[in-house]
Amino acid sequence: MGTIATQDLLDRATAQTSLDDFGDLPFRDALDRLVDSANHEAKLSEAGAERFAGSIIGYLVNRLKIVDYLKKHPDLLERPIEKPMFVFGMPRTGTTLTINMLASDPARRNYMRWEALSSVPPSKSSGYKDDERYLAEQQRIDMSQKYMPHLSAIHHEDADSPSEDQFAMAMSFCSQLFDSILDVPGYHKWFLHEADYEPAFRFQKMQLQLMQAENGGRWTLKNPWHPLYLDALTTVYPDAQLVMTHRDPLQVVGSACSLVNTVRPIYSDAVDGRRIADALMETFDLMIERQQAYRAKHGEDAIFDINYAEQVRDPVGMMAKVYDHFNEPLTAEAEAAMCACIAENPKGKHGKHKYTLEEFGVSEDEVRERYKDYREEYGFA
Q1: How many CB atoms are closer than 10 A to CB 221?
Q2: Structurally, what CATH architecture does the domain formed by 6-377 represent?
Q3: What pTM was estimated for this model as a whole?
Q4: How far apart are CA 299 and CA 75, in angstroms?
């Protein structure tokens, strides 16, 4: 495919939509940095370069359509996003279990994968399974599972599953998503240490305001990486409810590396397991450091903590603690739906995820030493 040109991506998105207004919030610098890293560092295969370019165009197309729709319906921007709940924590610590339980509550509004990727027009509260966007995304997922059946054992999603809201941040090209799918150290450094995350959250809020136009409820969102930017998140959502999941890093590091190692070959034939581990562990270091700094500033109660082992033992009981922490009732209807969710989705339903730390050049002793303080603080030592 050759070198990917940012302007070509913008032009192709414009051509697909006959729209050219990407909105006032900044994104071009982030996109330029991402494309430059992809071109010079990611060692993209020819097929991988095409997939990467296609995904970027998809995010640009959705951004164009969101901006256009909100220009035609500016009243939507006046509708509040009240007390949204954000679930986060190092990946593989129970964020998916938590969001699936919360999503069972019919009072909550979830960030479904299909509408996250194609948001215009906004979905209705029922009948969406006849929407061609939903059908197309489910078909794409089914095809992926056919060729990569092991991926479901690691992380299973359907088109209407509550997905990660980093898809919203991806439309501003300020998202850990890109750091996971590609080996892009330049972008990685910028994203962790230099990026301004607030514009990405402001555009995310615009997307949510559009998406709730005909399908409301309390927004409940998940993104493992939110500890990196809690200050920006709570600047945009000052009444946000924050929930963090925790699990022993001895179980987390290898599992997270395995997930990234499964996805990267889609884009590159040169995948290095130790480089994956180094980048992830640096990110985990910062996640721990920044959530601790946030608690030091706002108090320990600013974030509700979930211990993975405790949650697995009594998932509905843990949800009751979450609701109690935020002084909200867990209704009988919500509790029954959560029980049904657990019964319908037993552990291992989609297969067993097999991995070892050694696959990625990492030893248990290295993880124990690196996360000694964190493991002691949360009772994993």
Answers
A1: 27
A2: 3-Layer(aba) Sandwich (3.40)
A3: 0.95
A4: 36
